[in-house]
Design goal:
With about 90 residues, this protein is mostly loops. The protein has a single domain, classed as Herpes Virus-1. A three-stranded antiparallel sheet has the order 2-1-3. The chain is globular and about 30 Å long. The termini are far apart. This is Zinc finger, RING/FYVE/PHD-type. One of its GO terms (biological process) is ubiquitin-dependent protein catabolic process.
């Protein structure tokens, strides 16, 4: 029997992935832009101008605007959302 496996000896272990702040789709924004209070489900970065929908989901203002230009549905739960029903959140 040989030691290790065909996968380079990582038998039973999961690979760890490290993501640095500012390397996501957000274009290099600071990970502490929202004081560590959450992550936008669209850009996967810290909230920038957090905005909530009627259904209670929170996104960056620009991410939500872009999503609503594409579809009039919440990016998370697909409930109907209008621009006028969205509210800026002050965390």
């Amino acid at each position: 029997m040989t030691s290790g496996s065909a996968r380079g000896g990582t038998r039973g272990r999961r690979a760890r992935v490290r993501v640095r702040a500012g390397t996501g789709a957000g274009g290099g924004r600071d990970a502490n832009a929202s004081g560590g209070r959450g992550t936008c489900a669209v850009c996967l970065d810290a909230y920038v101008l957090p905005t909530t929908t009627r259904c209670g989901h929170v996104f960056c203002a620009r991410c939500l605007q872009a999503a609503l230009r594409h579809s009039s549905q919440c990016p998370t739960c697909r409930k109907k959302v209008t621009k006028s029903s969205c509210v800026r959140v002050f965390l």
